[in-house]
Amino acid sequence: MPDSTFDAVKHVEHMAAVLGLAVDPVYMPGIVGNMARTAEIARLVTDFPLSDDTEIAPTFHPAQVHPAMPHSGSEGA
Amino acid sequence: MIGRSSTVLETAAAVRSGAVSAMDVTQAALSRIAADDPRLGAFTEVTSDRALAQAAKVDAAMAGGGDPGPLAGVPFAVKNLFDVAGLPTLAGSKINADHPPAPSDAVLIRRLTQAGAVLVGALNMGEYAYDFTGENCHYGPSRNPHDPSRMSGGSSGGSGTAAAAGFVPLTLGSDTNGSIRVPSSFCGLFGLKPTFGRLSREGTFPFCYSLDHLGPLARSAADLAAAYDAMLDPAGKDEPVTPGLGRGADGLRIAVAGGYFAKGALPEAFEAVATVAASLGATETVTIPEAARARAAAYVITTAEGGNLHLERLRTRAEDFDPATRDRLLAGAMVPSSWYLQAQRFRRWYHDRVMELFANVDIILAPATPCTAPPIGQETMVLDGVEMLVRPNIGIFTQPLSLIGLPIAAVPVQRPGGLPIGVQVIAAPGREDLVLRVAAQLELSGVCAAPVPN
């Protein structure tokens, strides 16, 4: 979980390697700044206790090949 | 007389009565765009040939005694993340300009065309919709017709500009975290973000699967209703909202959002809410629980899904992104899965709590933006004495609500001598009818209006 010891530079360097991203050093300050801000914001979420039965919001519908939702399929005009 | 200030319904009525031809209406719209868009930057493509051909079809249907459709001859334009047959779907990017032309129109364009409306072009937007300003480093900013030195708002910036300038009476945009409601507020328009999942996203370029919505922007509430009705799935069960609009706010329990939604903005944002609330006789306040965390959850879900969506392009064409978009998406691709999943679990918790509120209230009012349109290029603003970044904070009031897909109308409050600002009219999922009834009453009572600036 992000906390005040979160090191955005180290995180970005590590994740760039994990993801196979050859990040141009010129981009690093911008990425690191955004990563640090995201960590700060994410803490509001990760600090909030949730019960074990709180499911993730998106749902999956087996057998539904053409869901009414998005980018999906062959819904007619 | 149909002109720059005419609404969707006025235009359709004139064409359907034979008072004016669809061809004349279309040519007038194309002339306005040619004359004035070079200074406003709303369009990235004007589809003149297609528009004239479509107008001719509408006129032929009229001449043949057929029904040209409820939106006969109404010119409209779409954010350029909608597929338009024959054009690459830019989604505000330089990279997508290399994509092959879309083979067919997005579903919502097909439905509006089926209803007789005439597509006149594709509209500028913030790159890949990750934007609240309407600025774009590749195609230039879409400017605010009320003051072209100011932002249109984003990411559906061109959608705001084109409707507010009177180029067309109807545009389509997308809203992931506020991208219909923000330009509606800055440009002084009526905008509708429907319930999540209600309008088909087929044939549009995505940003964040969990949060993307599509919807209309216009200069009247009845126009939003007419467009929304025409875009519903004809094989679906959703009821049209136009027939009930005249009921207004009668019998509705209306409250103002307090707490998070009553701080962190300039006075004009709260004055607009107070004006709307007074007109509706709303005196109660309601607290939407944990809205700051909801905004945080929307932020995390957006950046993580966006980063994942664009990862391959970030790997191979990072230099072709808008630098601001690129850095945010690269950071988003690096978000730990636990942060993302916790945000999605929080979303479930928060949804269930907000649903409980709707047992006691039908409509909630909240500011749409914390300020009126800032000057283009402005990077910081002062809120409650604290200097804050403009870009991420424009959406503080919109993000916590789209997180759970509530239907929301943005309604424009005009400020004499000043820029307009919007108010969010919020209802429970599936109740587009209620938000549009309230918007229609506010328009009828003169509290909300969207005049085309001189």
Automatic annotation (TrEMBL), chain A:
Highest taxon in the source lineage: Bacteria
Name listed for the protein in its UniProt record: DUF4089 domain-containing protein
Organism: Skermanella aerolata
Automatic annotation (TrEMBL), chain B:
Tree of life domain: Bacteria
GO molecular function, one term: catalytic activity
Listed InterPro entries: Amidase, Amidase_dom, AS_sf, Carboxybiuret_hydro_AtzE
Organism name: Skermanella aerolata
Residue ranges of every copy of the Amidase domain listed in the record: 24-436
Pfam families: Amidase (PF01425)
Protein name: Amidase
